[in-house]
Amino acid sequence: MIEPHQLTESVTMRLLRPGDAAALCAAYLRNRDYLSPWEPVRPGEYFTEDWQAADIAGRLAAHEAGEGCPFGLFAGKRLVGRFNVAGIVRGPFQSAGLGYWVDSEYAGRGVASAAVRRIVAVARDELGLHRLEASTLLHNIGSQRVLQKAGFQQIGMAPQYLQIAGKWQDHNLYQVLLHA
User: Fold this and answer.
1) Could you read off the pLDDT of 44-72 as tens digits, one per residue?
2) Beta carbons of 148 and 116 less than 8 angstroms apart
3) Who contacts 91 (Cβ-Cβ below 8 Å, separation ≥6)?
4) Is the dihedral angle over the CA atoms 38, 105, 62, 60 positive or is it negative?
């Protein structure tokens, strides 16, 4: 069982719950412009409580199936970040991907670094994974620092890796080996 974890004096990380849809919707609305250069183009419905409720339900179903872990960062009841371990593959691979964002008001305050370090520990100790992967846009220096502080190493660059902000963009690829 993945327990809530106090990341800083004011921020806690825990698995998302069905009742978090309104908080997640509010966080996306608050950060819509801030996140737009770093994310895919989202349809208008994405920024609704119904969409977020359905997304949380799908991610919790994937969690129950052992395929992912949807985390939220909370300052009190206010959601201030989202971190997803997704695409868990078992067998000889024992790997997953990590994606995340932090509220603009919490960026640069060490919250993302603390969350990624905690997720690395969860991936190793509770999920039994061997590798955790992540990618960043080439110019996302802040996210690259977050990953490096948590032990990730750059392993390459993937041309036109993801469609972000409406265009195919190159990404740096990172990994951390959990059982070296």
Assistant:
1) 999 999 999 999 999 999 999 999 999 99
2) no
3) none
4) negative
